[in-house]
Design goal:
Oligomer: single chain
Helix content: 40-55%
Structural class: alpha/beta
Radius of gyration: 17 Å
CATH superfamily: NAD(P)-binding Rossmann-like Domain
Number of domains: 1
CATH class: Alpha Beta
CATH topology: Rossmann fold
Distance between the termini: 28 Å
Largest sheet: 4 strands, parallel
Shape: globular
Order of helices and strands: EHEHEHEHEHHEH
C-alpha cells in the first residue's frame, strides 16, 4: 500500500481493513510530486516483495482551480501526481515482461469539462488517454483498464450533506458504495480478456453530462 502524508494510524487502520486470511500487507511511503521518488519507490517494492503483478493507480490530488488563474507550478504538481506517476509506475510494471494487470482510477469527469477543477480535469483526461495507449503498447503481457467513479464519497472538507445535494446528477438519484468500486477492481483483475476499457461506475452520470461537484 502506498501513502504520502497520512498518519501511521490512518495507514495501519487501512491495512487492517484490507487484511484477509493468508494475505500479507506492506506499506510504502513516497511523495509522487517529485518524479524521482517514483522510481525509487518502485525499486523499494521490488527489493522488499519481488515482482509486481497488479498495479492500481489511485494516488491523486483534487483541488479547485480555473484556467484563468491556474499557475504552471500547480498544474505541474497535479500532473506529476495524477498522470506522470501512474505512467512511470506502469512503465516499470511493463518492463518486467510478466503477465499482469494495471488499473487506472479515473473520474466520470473524463467525458465532461469541469471548469472549476481545471488542473484535475486535465490530469484525469491525460490518464484516460494513456489507459488506451498503454493497453495497446503493453500487450500482450499487460492488461490496462480504467475505472471512472462518480458520486461515491464526499470530497475532503465536505460531509454527507454534500452528497445529498448532488445525487440528482446521476440516473439513480443516490450515491454509489465503495464496494461498487472494489468489486469492479476485482472483476478487471480476474478477467484476462479485457484491456483498454474504461468502466464508468457513476450511476449513468456521464450520460447526463453533469460533473460530480
Amino acid at each position: 500500500m502506498h501513502y504520502c502524508s497520512s498518519t501511521d494510524k490512518d495507514v495501519d487502520d487501512a491495512l487492517i481493513d484490507i487484511k484477509a486470511p493468508g494475505v500479507e500487507t506492506w506499506k510504502f511511503q513516497s511523495d509522487f510530486s517529485n518524479i524521482d521518488n517514483v522510481d525509487s519507490f518502485f525499486e523499494k517494492i521490488k527489493s522488499s516483495i519481488g515482482t509486481v503483478d497488479f498495479l492500481i493507480n489511485n494516488a491523486s490530488v483534487f483541488t479547485p482551480s480555473k484556467l484563468t488563474t491556474l499557475s504552471v507550478r500547480e498544474l505541474n504538481n497535479t500532473l506529476a501526481i495524477n498522470s506522470i506517476a501512474p505512467f512511470r509506475l506502469s512503465q516499470h510494471v511493463a518492463k518486467q515482461k510478466r503477465e499482469g494487470s494495471i488499473i487506472n482510477i479515473l473520474d466520470s469527469r473524463v467525458k465532461l469539462y469541469d471548469m472549476n477543477y481545471a488542473a484535475y480535469q486535465l490530469s484525469k483526461n491525460m490518464l484516460h488517454n494513456m489507459t488506451e495507449m498503454m493497453a495497446v503498447e503493453f500487450a500482450p503481457h499487460i492488461r490496462v483498464n480504467g475505472i471512472a467513479p462518480g458520486i461515491i464519497l464526499p470530497p475532503d472538507g465536505k460531509d454527507e450533506s454534500h452528497i445529498q445535494k448532488v445525487i440528482q446528477r446521476n440516473l439513480f438519484n443516490r450515491s454509489g458504495k465503495l464496494s461498487d468500486i472494489t468489486d469492479t477492481v476485482l472483476f478487471l483483475l480476474s478477467n484476462t480478456f479485457i484491456t483498454g476499457e474504461v468502466l464508468f461506475i457513476d450511476g449513468g452520470q456521464n450520460l447526463k453530462g453533469e460533473p460530480n461537484e
